[in-house]
Amino acid sequence: MSHLAGGALIIVGSILVFVFVQAVLDPYAVIEINCVSTKDQTDKIVVAIFSALFPILGLFLSFAPARLLDNWAAKIIGRLS
Asked: What is the pTM of this model?
């Protein structure tokens, strides 16, 4: 199941990265942050970097061994309970 989620994150995250990199390269592109339109270059770069985390996380989920993910999930559940 984690491999399927990783594949979805890779696809969706790659689309987001593609769109936001185009926005970074276009000085007239407008993005919305908290319902406020902005052309600020710094905001566009931050959004592009943040959206790049999704395909990176997807690659980890897709190619990590199931045993590693099971151990990781067990540790998280153990700490929460």
From this structure: 0.78
